[in-house]
Amino acid sequence: MVRFLIPSVAVLLFLLEPEFAMLSPIEVKGHIYYLVPRFLILYLIFISIYYSRQRAVMYGLFFGVLYDVFYIDIIGLYSVLYPLICFLAGSIVKVIHQHLVVTTSISVILVAILEFILYQFFYLIDFTAIPLSEFLRSRLLPTIIANALFLMMLGWAFKYLINARVLQRAREVS
Amino acid sequence: MPHFFFNKKVILLLVGMVFLVALISFSLRDRTNATLPEQIIKDTVGVAQSIVAKPANYISGIFNKIDSLLNTYEENKRLKARLEDFAVVQAEAADLKLDNKKLQELIDKSESLKDYNPIHATVIARNPDQWEEKIILNKGSSHGVEKNMAVMTAKGLVGKIILVTPFTSEVELLYTNNPNYRVSAMVLGDKEAYGLIEGFDKERNELILKRIDSSLTVKKGQQVVSSGLGGIFPKGVPIGEITEVSTDDFGLTKMAYVKPSADFSILDHVVIAKRTSTVIDGLDGNATNKDLTNPPEVNEEEEK
């Protein structure tokens, strides 16, 4: 049961992202803010930290390809960035403490890095022309805040679910 | 470090990088069609997405309803004020329509650029990373959707179809950065002025209508509709209202800022307009695709 729950949560988050994206952009006092939902990668980072780095990279590759083909139409962007972020998360966790607060902040920082790389890429290929300061103000900051809120609400649930799977696996092995 | 170059991992990484760059540049080309594996993935994800979209649309619908309920009083006041004019305008419109029909019969003109067959579609997803302004609809080529068709809401034009798979289609919204994205438009007034919607002003959040003949007068507050002269869109789809007029970079033609009439922030149901009169993609029918000087994609867009 728990075994299938982990990938199905990933699928669900993948499908929910564009629905939440429809709520964005929001306009507050004449300024436009883009909130980019990054639920799936946050979840994958958690898998990478608490479960297995290799597994997270595999999931990252799979969903990255889906993301590229379905939404972006540039194949090879998310399919590299997702596994890369998972790999980074899995590597970082070897040197730090696995407390929920620490992992939450690391996840948010990694998402910020992801956003920044994407901005640089789209800037390079002329899909966007917004200057860096505008990007920081209208995209990066609101995105970080929104995703941090999301993780604060559901991070413990992810951890709980992944721990249940880890325990189950340990029992199977023994 | 000679052994560095024989390290398997490094070589694998390099090969991977080359492959990646090749893949990205392949997919960045202006492609007219999705490849078969892409189509399969798009359709599969699209079906799953439309299942999820239903409850999500329902919930966002509830929020919308609450929102409109809160504004009811204000709105009611405004609408009542306009109601009196409305009856007069309606009578006039009915009269004009009848007149128009009679006159058209008189000159034996049955086809109009205005006619279109609507295909109703639901938005199942919006590109979550929002770098490109795209939405994905639940109708595809099996429902009669074709590339370059106009997509609109009740309020006005929102974009056009850029990619079709059997069960989904992708819409590029009007406010895009793509320089090849052009819509032939006209300004309604005593004398119609034609121009092209080209580009979007990020700071003002308005569309830019360029290449208006400088001898014509366009004023703030005038309505802009699609002209149908691009060959694909139906005529008379509202686009927006002019907010400012100025001359373009070289001072040869006029340009105007147009505030779009459609609401882009919440799109859930849209209409794909399939024009009934002959659809012409580009200069001379299908011959554009065999254009020798330009790649067909670019040429098509330019004629829009």
From TrEMBL, chain A:
UniProt name for this protein: Rod shape-determining protein MreD
Native species: Lysinibacillus pakistanensis
Specify the protein's topology with respect to the membrane. Multi-pass membrane protein
InterPro entries, sorted:
Cell_shape_determining_MreD (IPR007227)
Name a GO CC annotation attached to this entry: plasma membrane
- The reply to whether Transmembrane figures as a keyword in the UniProt entry is yes
What are the TM regions of this chain, as residue ranges?
A: 31-51, 80-96, 108-132, 144-162
Q: Tell me which Gene Ontology terms the entry assigns under biological process.
A: regulation of cell shape
Source organism superkingdom = Bacteria
Keyword terms: Cell membrane, Cell shape, Membrane, Transmembrane, Transmembrane helix
Which compartments does it reside in?
Cell membrane
Please give the family membership noted in the entry: Belongs to the MreD family.
